[in-house]
Amino acid sequence: MGGLVTCGLTVAVVHAQTGSPLEGRQLEQILGRAPAVQPGNVLRFAFPRSDLQVSLDGVALKPALALGGWAAFVPMGKQTMLMGDLVLLPEEIPAVMSKLQEGGIRQEALHNHLAGTAPSVLYMHIVGEGDPLVLAKALRKGLAASATPLTVPPSPSPGARLDLDTETLDRILGYRGRNNGGVLQYAVQRAETIREGGMAIPPQVMGISLNFQPLGGGRAAATGDIALIASEVNPIIRTLRSGNIAVTALHSHTLDEEPRLFHLHFWTTADATSTARTLRSALDRLNIRKPEG
Question: Does residue 178 share a domain with residue 225?
Answer without folding.
Answer: yes
